[in-house]
Predict the structure.
Amino acid sequence: MHQGGLLLGPSFFGSIGGFTALVYPFASLVVLDTLAVFGYMIYFFLIGVQMDPWIFKKIERKDISVGVSTVFLAIVLSLSGTFILLARDPSIESNVASSLPAVATSSSVLSFPIVAHYLTELKMVNSEFGRMALSSSLISNMFGFCIITPAILAKQNGSEIIASMQTFISGIGLVLVITLVIRPLILWELRRHTEGEPIKQGFIYMVFIGVVMTGFCSKAVGLNIFFGPLIYGITIPAGPPLGSALMEKLDLITSSLFMPLYFVKNGLVTDVFSVKPKNYLLVQSVILLACVGKFTGGMMSSIYNKVPLKEAVQIGLVMNVQGVLELGMFKMMKQNGAVQEEPFIVMCISMLIVTATITPILRYLYDPLRHHTHRKRRTIMDMKPDSDLQIVVCVHTQENVPAIINLIGGLHPTKRSPIGICLIHLVELVGWAHPILIPHKLNKVSSRKATTSRSIVNAFTILQQSHHHGLITVHPFTAISPYETMHNEVCEMAFDRRASLIIIPFHRRLSSSRMFEPSEAGIKNMNDRVLRRAPCTVAIIVDRAPTVKSSRPETTESRPSLRVAVFFIGGPDDREALAIGARMACQSNISLTIVRLIPNNKVANEDVDETECDKDAVNEVRSQMAGNMRVVYMEEVVKDGTGTVAVIRAMDELYEVIIVGKYHDTRSPLMLGLSDWGEGSELGPVGDMFVLADSNSHSTVLVVQQNNDFLTRQDTMSDIGSSVSTSIREGPTFPLRRSVV
């Protein structure tokens, strides 16, 4: 946007005779200036709304080291370079010479809100280096303020110091009024608000009036007009209900109208060609030293704290990001006489050049999968009989809970193979400046920001309590993140917990009229990214029950019988679905039916290895379940896709839980006519047929995808399965039914 302001100013189009007078007549400049100032106040108010003091709890010693080193080395290098230039070249113009120290110090500091917004825009905020860069930038922001403020006061004479102290005391008074008077009133009104209902419009308008009033008060006591709105925004609780409502109402108009006007206003008074080449090189040299100092300080201190070199370079680059907050600081310095016209223009140009250079380098270096490609994949099939089952459970709303709890209760937790659940309540980031991962204790939601998680955590607490002797343990979290990067939280948690299974809800909800509601695009995109990048098996659960079931789980003795079916065509995903079904069949109240489809004719170009793997998997399960009369194995001989659909429709209303794999060999006649059905769906063709078919079934459908070592899934499965044993066992003689469809 700043580039557009420069284009419309005297640097480019404004130099054409009559252009400025025609497009921006003098009378309109007053309106433009008023709207720009108002937008500037709103912008900093929203920055304050998104800032969350909770991040202080997550700052580590290495973050402090990186943050302090970044600013300290930048200030040392830039000021040293400034004094050397001034000593060696007495011919430097006075307006430039007097500005260089201020240029050095202002270029050495950075702002946490700008870094947070920048990383969010690049979808890197949930990465390991992104989290460290966020915390370090906050420390750098505070350290820079503590260094620069005393330096400014030391240069002032007696009367100026008194005036500055008066302004400082007035600022403290304004902060106290906002914190001790206005904030309690806002919190009081929020306590009266009914949870789940929208904020009253009258209350929103009163908050808007507060933005203008705090801005005017700031200006009246001698502070910058953005100071009051910034502090006012910080005192407002981030996130829902108020913070999210303010962001939804103000963010779009601020970013698309007010801030472009602010940049146009600045561009109209900035002429880049008015800077002399020598002055440009002098100022740019000082700025370059500051950038080198921030990069080197951030990178070297990160390496010292045992951060990998690639991430250390990324942290060093991020520390040089600048934005509108820095532009406002440059303008304030120009108005106060600390920086003259030419150095101000060079600083604006440098801000654009540095940020434009850093962005493509960061995109090139950033690899979200780099840490995980060398790790062994984890699946249900590969689990040892006496190993614990670690599951990452993702929940968006309370409606997702009953079906997931019922499913987990059927996974047969035992003393030899207990179940560990990492529960993640996923909340879209609206009204925060940075993602937050909040851990909870059972029976206690540890943060007011996660009050919506209370009922979800309580339901899983009951699940744990209903299984004695530690058969099920729950570790609950609330992850507040943008949908674009939410999958990183899920995948990172799966890595850390060494999970073998991730359970995520389907992105569409079934209405009371048995029709699926319009899809939630953000959740669907998140599901797709989890499926692509998960280090373990992923299961998408679709609950088609007409009413919300009780989230209070029964004990194993009191739980009613459950009919479970595994729909088996073949391939890695179906073998994983079979492994999940086999584990559930070990529970006394569950009856399992394995429905295997067999092509009527031999398949051309059949993958022999895959076929042998399928036979081996089926025979192994039949061997394990020998003598278990609650397990039934059925073979349906099918001619084409029409027969497959007939089997699906016949099964749909017979079972409470249906487990099916996502991907199947499209060359198989069993998939003829179905290959394009589920194209682009996270459920796959067969999963879509079960879920979206015109049926009154109330069954829960579980669509399973086995991890594939981060390789892109292909329609054919010829490259998969080479690492699986292909030895063949003869299946036992237990219930077998075969029919032709």
